[in-house]
Amino acid sequence: MTIILTLETTCDETAAALVTDGLEVLGSVIASQEKLHEKYGGVVPEVASRVHLEQILPVIDSVLVEAGIKLNAIDAIAVANMPGLAGSLLVGLSAAKSLAVATGKPLIAINHLQAHIYACKISSGVDPFPCLGLIISGGHTSIYYCADPIDFVFLGGTIDDAVGEAFDKVAAMLNLPYPGGPSIQKAAANGNPQAYNFPRSLLGEPDRASFSFSGLKTAVRYRLAGAGKKINPAEASAELSQAEIADIAASFQEAAVDCLVGKTLQVMARNNVDTLCVGGGAAANSRFRTKIKEATQKNNYRLFIAPTNLCTDNAVMGAIAVERYKKGLFENLDLDIFPGLIR
Ligand code: KG4
Ligand code: ZN
C-alpha cells in the first residue's frame, strides 16, 4: 500500500490528509481561518499566509496522530502549488519541500482545480473521466474538458467575478456573515426566489462558454440602494425586514444558480460531452445541487458532485497525487508556485 501525505494551503484553509493509492482516506485535518477573515468580509492574503505558517506543522502532526502513522511510513509528499494566493501557496510548498528533504521521499505537485474535480472520483468510487469539469468557488468559475485527471483543457470561465465571490459580496451588502455562500443559502430558505427577476447574464449567447456575475451583483445593489445613488447598500439593507432580505437572497441565489446550470448545459451540448463533474466551494449550494441534478437527469447526462465537505477546500482531494505517483511524475526541489488561473 502506498501512503501519500497531501497538503493544501491555496487560500484560507490549512489542510493535510493521508491517502492511499486505493483512494482510502487514513486521516484528514482542516484548520479553517474563516473566523479571522470574517471581519474583513473576505480573505486577506497577508493574514492568510501568516496563519498558514502558524498552523501548517500542527496540522501535519494532527493528521499523523489521527491516522496513527509515523512520518517515515509515508511514500510521498504532495502539495497544491497552483493556483491560489502566492503567500499561502508558498507556506504549503516550503513545508512539503522540507518534509521531502527530511524523509528522502518524492515530492508531487497538485493542481488545486484538478483536485476539486478529482473529489468526484474519490467520493463516488467511479472513474468519471473523460468529462466536463465545472469548478465554482470563491476564486474560480471555470469549465474544462477533462480528458483524464491531469489533462485539462480550459473551455471558458467568468469574465468578471467568480460565483462564490458574488455570493460573498452580496452577503456583505445584505449584512449577512462571511462566508456569504452558506449565509445566503440560509437566508434564501425563507424567501421567494421569484420575488425579483435579477439578470441571467450570457444565457442568451449559447455558443459562448463564459459566465458573468457583476451585472447580477449590481442589480442587487440597485435594488438596495437605487440606481446611481451613493447610498451604502449595507446601510440600506439594515432598514429592511427579514422577509425582504430573504426574498433578495433567494432571488439572487436563483439567478446565480440559473446562470451556472444553464451555461454548463449549453457547453455540454456544444462539446458533445455527456458526463459532468462539479467541484469547488459553491458546489455545496443546495439550490445549485437540486437544479443541476434535475437538468442533467432531464438530458440523460451523468453527474458527479462531491459531498459538501469535499467541495470546500480540503486536502483529501489532493489524493489526485496518486495519479502522478503511479506515473512517476515527481518534482525537483526547485518546484515553484503558480498563483494565476490556468488556461
Ligand atoms: O473552494 P473554496 O472553499 O475556496 C476557494 O478555492 O475559493 O470556496 C469558497 C467559496 C466562498 O466564496 C463561499 O462563499 C462559497 O465557496 N460557498 C458557497 C457555499 N458554501 C461555500 N457558495 C454558495 N452556497 C454555499 N452553500
Ligand atoms: Zn478551492
Instruction: Provide the residue-averaged pLDDT.
Output: 96
Radius of gyration: 20 Å
Number of helices: 12
Strand and helix order: EEEHHEHEHEEEHHHHHEHEHH
Query: What structural class is derived from the secondary structure elements?
Result: alpha/beta
The count of DSSP E runs of length 2 or more, i.e. the number of strands, is: 10
Query: Which ligands does the model contain, each kind named once?
Result: 5'-O-[(R)-(carboxyoxy)(hydroxy)phosphoryl]adenosine, zinc ion
Named at the architecture level, the CATH assignment of the largest domain is 2-Layer Sandwich
Regions with pLDDT < 50 over 5+ consecutive residues? none
Share of helix among residues? 40-55%
> Which word captures the global form?
globular
- CATH fold node name of the largest domain: Nucleotidyltransferase, domain 5
- Bin the strand percentage: 15-25%
Distance between the termini: 35 Å
**CATH class category name of the largest domain:** Alpha Beta
Tally of structural domains: 2
Strand order of the largest sheet: 3-2-1-4-5
